[in-house]
User: What shape does this take?
Amino acid sequence: MGKKHPTARDDAYAVGGAFTGIGSGGEATPRGKFNVSIWGAFVATVALERSFDGGTTWLNCTRPDGTANAFTAPASLVCDEPETGVLYRLICSSYTSGTVNWRISQ
Assistant: This one.
């Protein structure tokens, strides 16, 4: 999945960081329920993506209604992955200012 996050106050294993420009974050391989959070003061667009082929192809995760996940404000959600070996990451596709803190944990 990742490693014990240095700021974790529990036994969560996580990857985390901050966006200060366009780019992608670290990858996680959760199975079952896991958390995705973004926070901070920012003007940016961040999306949750997953890969079924080891990171060669990344697909935007969609909401139950079929729309793409694209966050422009702080958000926290619980996801559920039934398959083993699926990679997840957050990607900042549009950036104007601020810091987008992020964390994927289980």
About this structure: The chain has one domain: 3-105. Residues 31 and 84 are 6 Å apart (CA to CA).
